Amino acid sequence: MIWLAALGGAGPISSTGSPIATVTLAGQSWKLYNGRNSQLNVFSFVATSQNQNFNG
What is the pTM of this model? Predict the structure, then answer.
């Protein structure tokens, strides 16, 4: 999942509640989370600041 912003109390699927890494992709900084949704292993990239114009 790619989150351009985390608003209204929503958050990514995470087994620990904490990011496993911070990465830079396409010039944007992202916190990387990992967790399970039923049988699926989900990776979520959450922008460290709200992004209204992302191209990647």
Answer: 0.84
